[in-house]
Amino acid sequence: MTDAPSAPQGARADRAGEDSTAPQRPLELLFEVQDLDLQLDSLSAREAELPEELLSLRREMDDLNNRLEDTEMVLERIEAQTRRLDLDLKTTREQMERTRAEQDKNAFDARAQAQYGSRLQQLTERAEEMEEDLAPLRERESELLAQSKALREQHRALRPRLGELEVADEQRVADLRASGQEMRERREALLGSVDPRTAREYSAIRRSKGGVGVATLTSGRCSACNVSLPVNIQQRVSAGRVPPVKCPSCGRFLLSRAEG
């Protein structure tokens, strides 16, 4: 029986190289996707980092709003008290006028004059008490009106600058998003070359593992959790098995990469 002719050594080497790298290709793609994801994460973090001047001005505006709201709540309460006392004082004065009119009309003797006089004295004392109570309320009302006016003027003076900063920040965010557009397009193209199940699993791992879904096998250790891996795991990772091998410690996909 004649042995089949063997393939040339170079061809065998080429096929061996293809066989060894082909299973690793999805993870190589995911590793590149991850690099883009991390860069996009950094851009997103920068989007959320508002300029200090804008933050400071927003805090100042919020403080003004709170102070204005508190001032106007107190002012509303003082105004209500003032209105009630004013109404009571008006009613008391009307009663005094009616009592005087009745006194002039009906008080024909000393006893009636004394009764009407006593009634007028009570109403007069009550009116004087109300006037005494109204004086500090009106003073407080005047102070609160002045405070409210001053706070509104401060708020109005700051609004233009706040508007400028808000517009500038919107442009800053738009510029950051535009700078990441090419990365997002590249990411989608790479992810489209990975089978959907592996891509979904990578995304799930990344979400639960602080943004890193693919770790490298470095000196026998997982680069993410630094756990030394068993030899059989190292061999499976180096062989580029499909489905991808996960770190038994942290659950991330493991990628074998040449050192040095």
From TrEMBL:
Gene3D superfamilies recorded: 1.10.287.1490
Keyword Zinc in annotation: no
Residues of the C4-type zinc ribbon domain: 221-254
Region Disordered: start-end pairs: 1-26
Coiled-coil regions, chain positions: 47-147
Keyword Nucleus: no
Ranges where the CT398-like coiled coil hairpin domain occurs: 33-210
Alphabetical list of Pfam families matching this protein: CT398_CC, Zn_ribbon_9
Record's keyword terms, sorted: Coiled coil
Designated name of the protein: Uncharacterized protein
Organism: Deinococcus proteolyticus (strain ATCC 35074 / DSM 20540 / JCM 6276 / NBRC 101906 / NCIMB 13154 / VKM Ac-1939 / CCM 2703 / MRP)
